[in-house]
Write a structure and sequence with these properties.
By secondary structure, the chain is an alpha/beta fold. It has one domain: Rossmann fold, CATH 3.40.50.1240. The chain has eight helices and six strands. The longest helix is centred in the last third of the chain and has 21 residues. Keywords: Gluconeogenesis, Glycolysis, Isomerase.
Length: 201
């Protein structure tokens, strides 16, 4: 049976500063490094056939920390554009609290949590999901069908979109889906790609 492990990167310096990050290429904070180390500890004993991250530094660094263990030194690692965070457009680099004061918290919540409303100049979750799922279906599903174990390190919205697809969540349900930095979610599939196990670590 194929195993898929989804990990959100550790806390970034932008998370710490409470700004809209999107495609800004920011480093992990010291806490983010610790969260990545904790993920590696949680995954101790797992075997992976391949590992993927987005091309943004915070995801790459998180994956680097995870696969630094000697047992995983030979895992093929791939950095994929399609796994990048949702593009936040005009909001990137701006403080979330200040934007809430300017536009109202309700509007900010719509930009951040809704499925089909894009922030100004940015992507909706629906658009982010489309590119993520296209990659997943083309590159990951064949490996899972073959019984391989795959690790993906990505971003909050990228993973929200993928989990929405895998778990058949509604737009209303995905609004409430929160994925914390350093969060780990495991799926196990049967030969027909039906989920037979799903859990957080």
């Amino acid at each position: 049976m194929g195993l898929l492990v989804l990990v959100r990167h550790g806390e970034s310096t932008a998370n710490l500063a409470n700004v809209f990050t999107g495609w800004l290429d920011v480093a992990l904070s010291p806490k983010g490094d610790e969260e990545a180390q904790l993920v590696a500890e949680k995954l101790r004993g797992y075997h992976f056939d391949a590992a993927y991250s987005s091309t943004l530094i915070r995801a790459e660094r998180t994956l680097d920390i995870i696969v630094a263990r000697p047992a995983w030194a030979t895992i093929p690692v791939h950095h994929i554009e399609a796994l990048k965070e949702r593009m936040y457009g005009d909001l990137q680099g701006l403080n979330k609290a200040e934007i809430a004061l300017k536009y109202g918290q309700e509007q900010v919540d719509i930009w951040r949590r809704s499925y089909d409303v894009a922030p100004p100049g940015g992507e909706s979750l629906q658009q982010t999901q489309a590119r993520t799922v296209k990659f997943y279906e083309a590159e990951i599903v064949p490996q899972l069908r073959a019984g391989k174990n795959i690790l993906i390190v990505s971003h909050g919205n990228t993973l929200r979109g993928l989990r929405m697809y895998l778990e058949h969540l509604t737009p209303e349900q995905v609004m409430a889906l929160e994925i914390v930095t350093g969060g780990v979610h495991v799926y196990r599939f049967d030969a027909e790609m039906k989920i037979v196990e799903t859990r957080n670590l």
